[in-house]
Amino acid sequence: xxxxxxxxxxxxxxxxxxxxxxxxxxxxxxxxxxxxxxxxxxxxxxxxxxxxxxxxxxxxxxxxxxxxxxxxxxxxxxxxxxxxxxxxxxxxxxxxxxxxxxxxxxxxxxxxxxxxxxxxxxxx
Length: 124
Fold this sequence. Notes:
By secondary structure, this protein is mainly beta. The chain has strands spanning 3-7, 10-12, 18-25, 33-39, 46-52, 57-59, 67-72, 77-82, 91-98, 114-115, 119-123.
């Protein structure tokens, strides 16, 4: 049973930092992509940062230069370091992974099929 569990959310003042961690369990192969998404009240869910199977990372323009995504194979975790937080970063943050595809035979878009339950980030 594949499971993703987020932790590290909370409340912080503008300009502060938080580190989110997504812990994966139930699978041992490499994911096609693994990333962080967020959804604020009344807004659509958006991709924040993503790490692809080849190690390349992607960031939305809104967080580029402030957020850093990294993967730890020893602990099977994906972290998101968030610096210089702004009130507009307030949202529920979800981690998600595409475990159905493999870069050896697929070159399409990242299509997460496993999602965590989310962790709230509030910046005031």
